[in-house]
Design a protein that fits this description.
The complex is a heterotrimer. By secondary structure, chain A is of the alpha+beta class. Chain A is built from five helices and five strands. The termini of chain B are far apart. The chains are: A alpha+beta, B alpha+beta, C alpha+beta. Chains in contact: A-B, A-C, B-C.
């Protein structure tokens, strides 16, 4: 077995031992660290269900060799809310606007929308569509998701 | 159920597998997600009870489960569409470090085959493989890559034979299965078949093989029980039919197979057949350990049935005024290697082949055949999608031949309540086809100026197209199908309700697949019982009877009806006791705002007090009105109820490159009554998107039975830059007399007419016949080239 | 997989590769990890280069744009590099999705050497020189000498792609790409076209329509003669159409599950016609 390595996830250092070095960050998050919020829909970078932030950069965790992420700050959907009961503005908007159906694409979208609104607080409809064009959803047809993004953006702008 | 080794990410909602097993924090966590302060009943815009855990990543899907000391299962699949298996050497696989079991067909303890309509599909290939991807062997190992490597090490000696891949040749070809190559032939003869119209139009149409492409791949966890039984947590559409088939294959009593619904990442028909259920249970029982399986995306394309590809010949006859005289059609559906639900799919395709129109005479030949292509079965729209594309293409062709407005042609032929279908059945419920057409067609066409923003243009970010390179077209289509199961099937759902301490608990095995039944169930209980707090018990086979399938647009009616009836039965008990206590008639009492109140305003009591301690409960089975089988002429009262929808699509097309950007979709739908507006919008937008996908891009590409695009890289579904906003011009609310609250199922109609409307818009823009969907860029660009030359 | 080295400098990367010349170089992971996840590749040694600062830079030297192999698609689109190499930015914007563009790199696109690699026609049209380093020191070569077949390069064991050096012509650059939907697509046909007003040449290269990345040299030479370079007037429709046909002749497409040879040949002609018209139109420069 290779040497253990450590990943820093949502502000916590996590030891990864007895692993196969070929494992993706997605697999390690889900199967070794129990952080199953990050989803496994395609494992080829085509759906963004597994999106996380690595040093603040939106990344498909399925395409990251886990061992290479040692020393970087990884943020998953579990790390985005404000504690267990408090939802982020984006999460709140998704719930309120009916943007969730089966919910499998939802965590990746939540992470991607956090990233989008951080970079672009006033996105146009085209901006939102382009930013989320890699987040596949099969249930919603995107209508309520787009409504939630615009609603979250408006809420964030109205906050001091 | 067993107490527990199963742990999830976090116990959250009622549908998640382990939420009852991991009791510790489940109560608190569950409670704050399912209680809705303030009563919000049927018709209100209530949020999903699982919405919060889903946005937090705490909702446990079937791929999120684990148990102490569990193994990973893996399936070895056939690389050949047709072959005999001369021998299998599992020695090298078994010798792989970390491998705990390798199982073959001989290891299936009970019945080797299963199936929804016919038990014709082997759980593991039994001497023969009939499609690429057919499961041949199972491996359990302590790491998924070890399991995969071990499977690769299994040596299968195949004698490859020529596959049958042409559906039209199948009836006369050598049988590829003991049951023969014709799964079902259904002939509808209606009215005067010698009649003919002054105007006839004819066409041949084709629909490619669509995939449901749900986001959450097939997955589950099986745990062996001490009594020789097995506990299975899985994503499925129908728990009890899974149990029936799994128990038969395992050769054990159904009671020993305990299935709990794990979080489902979408379904759309693809989870109605078994995939890994038997395999997981075999591995768990054989190894004595929990076993988990999660299909990869490419495996998922082999692991479930698809929408049937169709070839359809049509001839429409009409008089000079545009009234339909006769419709003739021959429909061939490729069912692939095993029957799945092909028999019911061809019945729907045939019964609704003429569209929602008054058709005095019809001769329809429907044929579902067996080939060595991947098996096809249920997908949203279930046969009606394919024929809608054909009949709506024909209606446009007929309008052109008559020099008539296509919407007007549809309006004068629109079916209504009291009219007859081509199966002879008189429509007794509501069926406002004309109003749906008028609402959709009458909505103002949005003024969308040509844009130079790449994101609004065909080709999108590929920068292929300037606004000047595009032409715009508008298309219209209407379609319909049945709600619930048909042809005499005894279709029912079961539900239980308990009220104690003022809190209602509802138990139903309805599979929540994303559609929002969990929201509706709470709304119904609130409406019937006047309570705030409604807890949904987990959906599982051990605690309640079958709810039937989450398919056929049936659960709002069927499981909604069951929950309504259970709640009402409890209400009757409560009111009877209170009435006796107060010395009044129960007719003068109601449940409201957590109180029992007399209508005269004289007396009230807290429901929590009345139901303190013991509580009240009821358990019901809800059946819809019986239906009949179709006779030898395809005539009979085979269906319960019908729903229709219409779509109008505005598309910009780059004809030189064959690229399309849809700019607007407007729809109207026959909904009976809306029970939750936001969820209804979500169903309509999502269903429409799947129709857009079929029209423009979604197709499983086969090459001699081999799927060439089993990935999300090459099986493409619409993105945010492919789907425009959907404008809902109206939902036409004419309550259905026998349906609970008058509500019709709304999941399927949006998928039926949307494909046809997109195709019509592209035709209008290009002037090309485009008889096939999906419309590929070459179908436009090269056809246009030929026309020009 | 027995070891993973995460190089933090170019020297570390070189050293790791010298130590394990058969190691697989991992950059953004957008191609390699797909194959690892599917069990199609099981490399024993991996050298990660995504965190090598020297590879993540770009600069202009001697009027050439030097783009480090570790520069991501997002960086190509959003930094001043987009002004220095507009077609590279246009191509980058068509790659995958935002998270893919955050991870995928120019070096990765080169190393994978797929005919559908979106930046490759741009590199060909900008006369790119590929710079590699390895046990034998630094080597430089044109794209034709680097990409030697479908997913085949002339990289030697232990070598690492360092950078691509590109022309910086005075003239419009255009990249166009066709896929089966309006975002997040693998190319069915792609084309880069560069107008060089100083050299009075037009350069055009094709993606996904041949085993390599062909330049349409005959068409380039022909059209250079048709253009009124002195006046800067636009090209007329007849010239643009004929240019399209001549460019298509440089393609040698195949039928596969993504499209047909006939469509690809047709589409390349349309793309070339449009690209030429845009490059010599009087309007604003095309957006990315």
């Amino acid at each position: 077995m290779p040497d253990p390595y450590s990943l820093r996830v949502n502000g916590v250092d996590c030891e990864v031992a007895d692993s196969d070095l070929a494992e993706s960050l997605l697999f390690v998050l889900r199967e070794r660290l129990g952080l199953t919020g990050t989803k496994n829909a395609c494992t080829e970078g085509e759906c963004s269900s597994c999106a996380v932030l690595i040093d603040g950069v939106l990344t498909c965790s399925c395409l990251v060799l886990a061992a290479t992420a040692a020393g970087q700050e990884i943020t998953t959907v579990e790390g985005l809310g404000d504690g267990r009961d408090e939802l982020s503005v984006v999460q709140e908007a998704f719930v309120h606007e009916g943007a969730v159906q089966c919910g499998f694409c939802t965590p990746g979208l939540i992470v991607a929308v956090h990233d989008l609104l951080e970079a672009n607080p006033e996105p146009s409809d085209g901006d939102v569509r382009e930013a989320l064009s890699g987040n596949l959803c099969r249930c919603t047809g995107y209508g309520r998701i787009l409504a939630a993004v615009h609603s979250a953006a408006a809420t964030k702008r109205s906050q001091p | 159920m067993t107490s527990g080794p199963v742990v999830t990410a976090e116990p959250v909602m009622t549908t998640a597998a382990a939420n009852t097993a991991a009791a510790g924090s489940a109560g608190a966590a569950g409670a704050d997600t399912i209680v809705d302060a303030g009563t919000r009943g049927v018709g209100a815009d209530v949020g999903r009870p699982d919405g919060v855990p889903k946005v937090q990543g705490r909702f446990a899907f079937s791929s999120d489960l684990w148990a102490d000391d569990f193994l990973w299962g893996h399936t070895l699949r056939s690389p050949h569409a047709s072959a005999n298996i001369r021998g299998i050497d599992i020695g090298p696989a078994l010798a792989t470090a970390g491998v705990h079991a390798v199982l073959l067909a001989d290891d299936v303890p009970g019945c080797i085959t299963y199936g929804l309509e016919h038990g014709d599909q082997p759980a593991l290939a039994n001497g023969q493989v009939r499609y690429v991807g057919e499961p041949v062997a199972l491996v359990a190992a302590d790491h998924p890559d070890v399991a995969r490597r071990a499977a690769e090490a299994i040596v299968v000696d195949y004698e490859v034979t020529d596959p049958l891949i042409d559906a039209e040749a199948a009836p006369d070809a050598a049988p590829i299965h003991p049951d023969g190559n014709v799964i079902r032939e259904l002939i509808i003869r209606h009215g005067d078949l010698d009649s003919s119209g002054e105007v006839t139009v004819e066409g041949i149409y084709e629909v490619g093989m669509q995939d449901q492409a749900f986001m959450g791949p097939e997955s589950g966890l099986a745990l062996p029980d001490e009594d020789g039984g097995v506990e299975l947590f899985v994503s499925t559409q129908w728990l009890h039919v899974d149990r029936e088939q799994v128990a038969a294959c395992l050769g054990i009593d159904e009671e020993k197979v305990r299935i709990t619904l794990a979080g489902v990442g979408g379904a759309f028909g693809a989870r109605e057949d078994l995939s890994l259920q038997v395999h997981l249970c075999m591995l768990a029982l054989h190894t004595g350990k929990p076993v988990k399986m999660v299909y990869s995306r490419d495996e998922s394309f082999y692991g479930h049935v698809h929408r049937h590809p169709a070839k359809m010949w049509y001839r429409h006859h009409a008089d000079r005024d545009g009234r339909l005289v006769k419709v003739e059609a021959r429909i061939v559906l490729d069912g692939g290697a095993y029957a799945s639900s092909s028999g019911a799919v061809i019945a729907n395709a045939s019964c609704f082949a003429a569209g929602p129109y008054k058709v005095p005479a019809a001769h329809i030949v429907g044929l579902a055949v067996r080939t060595n292509n991947p098996p096809c079965g249920a997908m949203r729209g279930f046969g009606a999608v394919q024929t809608c594309f054909a009949h709506e293409s024909q209606m446009d062709k007929l309008a052109a031949a008559l020099g008539m407005d296509p919407v007007e042609l549809r309006l004068i032929n629109a079916l209504d309540s009291g009219d007859r279908l081509i199966t002879g059945q008189v429509i007794t419920g509501t069926f406002p086809v004309a109003e749906v057409i008028r609402q959709c067609a009458g909505a103002p066409v949005p003024d969308i100026p040509p844009s130079d923003d790449r994101r609004d243009l065909p080709g999108g970010s590929g920068r292929t197209t300037n606004a000047a390179d595009t032409v715009r077209g508008t298309g219209f289509a209407v379609g319909f199908k049945n709600l619930m199961f048909s042809e005499g099937y005894d279709d029912y759902s079961s539900a239980a309700c308990r009220v104690a301490d003022g809190v209602a608990t509802v138990t139903c095995a309805c599979a929540e697949v994303g559609q929002g039944f969990v929201t509706l169930a709470q709304q119904i209980a609130r409406t019937e019982l006047g309570v705030d707090e409604v807890i949904l018990a987990p959906a599982q086979t051990a605690t309640i009877g079958s709810a039937g399938s989450s398919s056929a647009s049936r659960q709002t009616w069927m499981s909604g009806g069951a929950v309504q009836a259970a709640c009402r039965a409890v209400r009757v008990q409560i009111l009877a006791d209170v009435a006796a206590d107060w010395g009044v008639s129960p007719d003068g009492l109601v449940l409201r705002d957590g109180l029992v109140v007399s209508l005269d305003g004289q007396q009230e009591a807290l429901l929590a007090q009345i139901t303190a301690g013991t509580g009240y409960e009821a358990d019901v089975e809800y059946h819809h009105a019986p239906t009949e089988a179709l006779d030898e002429n395809g005539q009979g009262n085979a269906h319960v109820s019908f729903a229709c929808a219409a779509h109008r699509v505005v598309a910009d097309v780059d004809p030189d490159l064959g690229l399309v950007r849809i700019r607007d979709i407007t729809t109207a739908q026959d909904v009976g009554r809306i029970l939750n507006p936001t969820q209804a919008v979500g169903q309509i937008e999502g269903g429409t998107a799947q129709g857009v996908g079929l029209a423009l891009m979604e197709e499983i590409v086969l090459d001699n039975g081999i799927v060439r695009n089993a990935s999300f890289t090459d099986y493409v579904i619409p993105t945010t830059l492919d789907m425009p906003d959907v404008t809902i011009a109206a939902w036409v609310e004419e309550p259905e007399p026998n349906a609970p609250y008058g509500a019709k199922g709304i999941g399927e109609p949006p998928t039926i007419s949307s494909s046809a409307a997109v195709a019509a818009a592209v035709r209008a823009a290009t002037g090309l016949p485009l008889p096939r969907i999906p419309i590929r860029p070459a179908d436009i660009a090269l056809a246009r080239n030929e026309v020009q030359q | 997989m027995s070891d993973v080295v995460v190089a933090r400098s170019l020297d570390e990367a070189r050293e790791a590769l010298a130590h394990q010349p058969d190691a697989t170089v991992l950059a953004g992971g957008t191609d390699l990890m797909v194959e690892i996840n599917r069990g199609l590749r099981r490399p024993r040694h991996v050298v990660g280069v995504a965190q090598v600062p020297e590879l993540r830079r770009w600069h202009i030297a001697d009027n050439r744009v030097v783009v480090g192999a570790g520069v991501t698609y997002t960086e190509m689109m959003t930094t001043a590099l987009a002004d220095a190499a507009p077609a590279l930015a246009q191509a980058a914007r068509t790659v995958g999705s935002p998270p893919i563009r955050n991870a995928g790199t120019l070096g990765g696109n080169l190393g994978t050497a797929s005919p559908a690699g979106d930046t490759l026609p741009v590199l060909a049209a900008l006369n790119a020189e590929i710079v590699v380093t390895g046990p034998d020191g630094e080597r430089r070569m044109g794209l034709d000498d680097f990409v030697v077949g479908v997913k085949q390069t002339s990289l030697r064991p232990g070598e690492l792609i360092v950078a691509a050096e590109l022309d910086r012509p005075t003239g419009r650059q255009e990249f166009l790409k066709i896929g089966p939907r309006n975002a997040m697509v693998i190319s069915m046909a792609g084309l880069a076209l560069v107008a060089d007003h100083d050299a009075r040449t037009v350069r055009c290269a094709l993606g996904a329509v041949a085993a390599g990345i062909p330049r349409a040299r005959e068409a380039e030479a022909w059209v250079a003669e048709q253009i009124d370079w002195a006046s800067g007037a636009g090209v007329d429709d007849g010239v643009a159409d004929e240019f399209g046909q001549r460019v298509a002749a440089a393609s040698s497409p195949i039928d596969d599950h993504r499209s047909t040879a006939a469509y690809r040949r047709h589409a390349v002609a349309v793309l070339a016609t449009r690209a030429l018209k845009r490059a010599f139109s009087s309007g604003e420069a095309g957006d990315a």
